[in-house]
């Protein structure tokens, strides 16, 4: 008979964390709620959630930008693009959302910016697909109807 007192038990490993936080928990339970007026008056740094209504899409010719793989804006330069963050010329670029919206709540108004990840979630479409679907070229300044349809809708902003 073998004595198992000195034999270690098999280890248990956990390859991934299954305790993923839901979007509702992230917005409502893990962050402080505020009004726009409260945000403007706050002296505390932190993440806040505001319930507000989009009233205007600001800067109709500036709802997207061309980005490097590092997600920073690139600038055209000699049939390529230059990324200041990477400090080099790049060829692999992607259009990304940067939608400036004027929002209101019962206390005040403010300008918020919806960046790419949130824009994709909100519109259910990547910026590249949006540009392709409406047939825009790099010099077109119109706002797609799908983005204009955000006006007069109320959202939780973080």
Automatic annotation (TrEMBL):
Recorded family membership: Belongs to the replication factor A protein 1 family.
A UniProt-annotated Pfam family: Rep_fac-A_C
Any coiled-coil regions, as ranges: none
Signal peptide start and end residues: none
Protein name as annotated: ATP-dependent DNA helicase PIF1
GO molecular function, one term: zinc ion binding
Replication factor A C-terminal domain sequence ranges: 48-149
Tagged with keyword Hydrolase: yes
Keywords on record: ATP-binding, DNA-binding, Helicase, Hydrolase, Metal-binding, Nucleotide-binding, Zinc, Zinc-finger
Source organism, top-level taxon: Eukaryota
Gene3D superfamilies linked: Nucleic acid-binding proteins
